[in-house]
Design goal:
Layout (H helix, E strand, L loop, with lengths): L1 E3 H24 L5 H21 L8 E3 L3 H31 L6 H26 L1
Antiparallel strand pairs: 1-2
């Protein structure tokens, strides 16, 4: 997949501003989680500066290879597998809550579905690396 340099720079700036906003809002709410968002914001700022320094002699309309098509296909397959797994997990959890088989808060089921789908995504990426 190829992107123009200015498109990639806009995405980096968007992430920098959004993480900065999250850090500031957490700081104003007196939560201690703002430090992590601040570190991510600094990392994105470093990414923007290093991108500008590395690519300053190229033109703004030159293309930049973001991902190869084979890698992109592997990521799409892993995302599809984890999405199906998450839907199945949520369906089983909803049926279990409705029929009284599972006791607890529905948020716990959603968090479990998200965490397990992330694990399925990571495992499928590892398996696809060894197979393909």
């Amino acid at each position: 997949m190829r992107l123009r340099k200015w498109m990639l720079l806009i995405v980096y700036i968007f992430f920098f501003l959004s993480f900065g906003y999250l850090s500031f809002s957490e700081f104003m709410d007196k939560d201690s989680f703002w430090v992590l968002w601040g570190l991510v914001t600094l990392g994105m700022g470093y990414q923007i500066i290093s991108f500008l320094v590395k690519k300053k002699e190229d033109g703004w309309n030159s293309t930049y290879v973001v991902a190869d098509d084979r890698i992109f296909r592997k990521i799409i397959n892993s995302l599809a597998l984890s999405y199906v797994f998450m839907l199945g997990f949520l369906l089983i959890g909803t049926i279990g809550l409705y029929n009284g088989f599972i006791s607890g808060h529905p948020v716990n089921i959603m968090v479990g579905a998200i965490i397990s789908s992330l694990l399925v995504f990571m495992i499928s990426q590892i398996v696809q690396r060894f197979i393909g």
